[in-house]
Design goal:
single chain; mainly beta; three-stranded antiparallel sheet; 1 helix; 11% helix
Amino acid sequence: MKKFFYLLLALPLAIFATSCDDDDKDVPNVDLEATFNAAEFDGEYYTVQGDVFTVESLKLINNSGKNGTLGATNYYLDGRFIGATIVSPYTCSIETSNLSVGRHVLGVSSDLFVVDYPTNIIAAQWVINIVESKDDIPAGAVFPVQPEEPGQSDTSAE
């Protein structure tokens, strides 16, 4: 008889554990756009060993039509945690002097908050190639545009 009462006591817990809102399939249509201070070629990024590789910004591309933002953002290099930020534009700088020459993977995960959707996590990764010198960067690589410093505009006479 005791077993029966214990079963009756456990029944509400079992019902509570199995009842849920089926919102796990409700994911907003978003993308993540990143800008780096490194040369880009064929979807991979190149930087010279000893230079600081910087994620200049992460931007949420929200195609859901609802307001949204990123939350706590974590960075990983070759699967190891290297830092976190909660401040937009979610920058991260990586000193490359201690990294080996070759391919590395930069990963990012961030909390994703979009109105009328449950909290989600967005993740992305990019290949970063550390090279010995600028000459090792492939021909045709696109280098980031460096902003002009104040007072450095072209003032050549005609």
